[in-house]
């Protein structure tokens, strides 16, 4: 296929050829009517009308040179048309094409009031250049607050760090003390047991003494009744027996007290062992609790550090920088304007990465593939550039439009679709810096 205007151009050339042939024929007819066969004018013909009436008029033969010129002209036009068709069928072109490029919209990342705008429309900007300033005072205060919270969290973390070793040492001391208490209680039980056994020995000894004293009383009583022994001696024996009986009772009471002390010592031993078990069981838990507190303090410090970093980021966002180099296509921000996060303030057009979006008819891309060379005519510059087909389209323009066609319903009329082909400019050409997105171009792709 050829250019969109090829059918119209061919028809126009044919009409021109027809008009030229018609004009030549009319000139020949005029020349025939203006002269006789012998080349005399019409006035002389009237004067010699008598002679001519006597001789029959012969038709004038066309000049052989004119005939040759006409045939040669037709052949030249036919050969030229054939050569033009043979040449034109190797190219596909369209005038439905524009220069395309990346357009970056700069938007505010934080809310604030615009206090300065450093660029104007159609001004060149470099990547990283500050173009808009927002009022930073609120974010400076947020940074100071976040920094104070971080210092407080770090201080609490430092204060909590020694608690783990302190708790570990305390737990070890408590375990040792519990062991000492157990040993002391065991010694107390052993001492009380010995005291009890000694009290039992004293009871048995007192009982033996009391039994002897009672036997003395029983032995002296008949003698005293017969006055064979002095009454004072008998009374002494009775008193000794009474004293021995009292000693028995006292020793028995002491043994009972010693037994209670044994029971009390055993109870203290059981309590000491229970306490030691609780201390041994609670020591790891107390250490774990302190370690959890330390981790909690560390987490709080980390969160405060993240809040400080976010506050610093928000403060840095008060200076809006352009991420790419290009030309400011539209300026939206004005001094005193309040902007919200995501609100566009500038529109920057990149000039270092331009291409052509050419919308060819679907019948034109039959032999078109990526990599084929192209010639691009830019209307605004009246200049041609070299390029190549970078990629073929993924879908037609109607499919990717906002409202794609729905051919499954209603009447269907077949329409030739257009598909956007991307054509890339070759680097190193003069005039590439003058190209702008949106310029109309006419690309011609060599498909064979």
TrEMBL record:
UniProt entry keywords in alphabetical sequence: Coiled coil, Membrane, Transmembrane, Transmembrane helix
InterPro entries (alphabetical): MdtA-like_BSH, MFP
Superkingdom: Bacteria
GO cellular component terms, A-Z: membrane
Pfam families on file: BSH_RND
Membrane-spanning segments: 68-86
Bilayer topology annotation: Single-pass membrane protein
Region (Disordered): 1-61
UniProt entry tagged with the keyword Cell membrane: no
The keyword Nucleotide-binding is assigned to this record: no
Coiled coil: 182-216, 255-282
Start and end residues of each Multidrug resistance protein MdtA-like barrel-sandwich hybrid domain: 106-349
Compartment(s) of residence: Membrane
Protein name: Secretion protein HlyD family protein
């Amino acid at each position: 296929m050829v250019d969109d205007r090829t059918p119209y151009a061919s028809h126009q050339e044919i009409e021109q050829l027809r008009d030229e042939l018609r004009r030549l024929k009319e000139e020949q007819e005029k020349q025939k009517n203006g002269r006789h066969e012998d080349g005399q004018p019409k006035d002389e013909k009237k004067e010699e009308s008598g002679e001519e009436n006597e001789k029959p008029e012969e038709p004038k033969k066309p000049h052989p040179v004119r005939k040759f010129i006409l045939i040669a002209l037709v052949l030249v036009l036919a050969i030229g048309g054939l050569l033009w068709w043979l040449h034109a069928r190797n190219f596909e072109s369209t005038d439905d094409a524009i220069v395309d490029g990346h357009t970056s919209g700069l938007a505010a990342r934080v809310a604030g009031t615009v206090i300065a705008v450093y660029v104007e429309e159609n001004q060149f900007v470099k990547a990283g250049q500050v173009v808009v300033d927002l009022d930073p005072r609120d974010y400076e205060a947020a940074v100071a607050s976040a920094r104070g919270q971080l210092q407080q969290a770090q201080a609490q973390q430092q204060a909590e760090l020694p608690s783990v070793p302190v708790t570990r040492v305390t737990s070890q001391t408590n375990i040792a003390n519990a062991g000492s208490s157990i040993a002391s209680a065991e010694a107390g039980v052993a001492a009380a047991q010995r005291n009890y056994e000694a009290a039992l020995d004293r009871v048995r000894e007192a009982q033996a003494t009391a039994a002897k004293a009672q036997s003395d009383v029983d032995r002296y009583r008949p003698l005293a009744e017969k006055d064979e022994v002095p009454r004072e001696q008998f009374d002494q024996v009775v008193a000794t027996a009474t004293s021995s009986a009292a000693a028995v009772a006292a020793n028995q009471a002491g043994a009972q007290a010693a037994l209670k002390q044994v029971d009390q010592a055993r109870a203290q031993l059981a309590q000491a062992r229970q306490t030691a078990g609780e201390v041994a069981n609670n020591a790891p838990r107390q250490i774990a609790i302190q370690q959890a507190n330390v981790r909690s303090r560390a987490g709080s410090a980390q969160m405060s550090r993240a809040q400080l970093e976010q506050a610093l980021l928000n403060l840095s966002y008060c200076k809006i920088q352009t991420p790419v180099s290009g030309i400011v296509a539209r300026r939206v921000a004005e001094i005193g304007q309040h902007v919200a996060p995501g609100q566009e303030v500038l529109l920057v057009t990149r000039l270092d990465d331009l291409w052509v979006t050419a919308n060819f008819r679907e019948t034109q891309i039959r032999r078109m593939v990526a990599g084929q060379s192209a010639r691009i005519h830019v209307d605004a510059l009246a200049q041609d550039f070299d390029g190549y087909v970078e990629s073929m389209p993924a879908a037609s323009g109607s499919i990717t439009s906002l409202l794609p066609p729905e051919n499954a319903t209603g009447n269907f009329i077949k329409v030739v679709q257009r598909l956007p082909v991307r054509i890339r400019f070759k680097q190193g050409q003069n005039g590439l810096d003058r190209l702008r997105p949106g310029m109309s171009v006419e690309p011609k792709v060599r498909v064979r």
